[in-house]
Amino acid sequence: xxxxxxxxxxxxxxxxxxxxxxxxxxxxxxxxxxxxxxxxxxxxxxxxxxxxxxxxxxxxxxxxxxxxxxxxxxxxxxxxxxxxxxxxxxxxxxxxxxxxxxxxxxxxxxxxxxxxxxxxxxxxxxxxxxxxxxxxxxxxxxxxxxxxxxxx
Amino acid sequence: xxxxxxxxxxxxxxxxxxxxxxxxxxxxxxxxxxxxxxxxxxxxxxxxxxxxxxxxxxxxxxxxxxxxxxxxxxxxxxxxxxxxx
Lengths: 152, 85
Hints:
The complex is a heterodimer.
Chain A: E1 2-13, H1 20-34, E2 38-54, E3 57-69, H2 71-83, E4 87-94, E5 99-100, H3 106-114, H4 124-151
Antiparallel strand pairs in A: 1-3, 1-4, 1-5, 2-3
Chain B: H1 21-24, H2 35-38, H3 51-54, H4 58-73
């Protein structure tokens, strides 16, 4: 059977329940198994700022799902992604030509996928947290310095 | 009245031909998942910069264009921004 490598990126609402991605992952895996595909990995890319509002949301949780599957699987996968109202956006991109499943180097692909996560740009929330951390850090330093100076 | 002077020959504005950054550095990979790299090729308004400005070669401009559009779908990049960021 000839298969292709794909990646699907999907965005879930930040106010959705914590296990929403886990649920959709399970459903995708079941469908993948039925069509004779193999999962590479599901990677959590975390909460990120959206460049524009989607479904009145300014932020979204990004998930990367890499897999090797029969082209027929994509139809089913996208149907599954459409069902859930907690998924606000998804996109599937084809990454390879049609090949035999054994021609893929699964371990190498898993490693590659792990290194893909793009760095996050700092937003207001991050800046606030960082400043709070710095302030706390400075206060801790002051406390540390105090007794040392006295001892000296 | 003195007749007008003929127009001076147009000066050449650029002395150097721009080199496509993706041809110069083969390790640079155009990918919608790295918006920080793609941002160099959009204007403040969020529009794709034409290659006569950026100097990208035709082949790479084509893939750049596709990847920017993919990045827009996933909200990594704006379709347009009314005010400059």
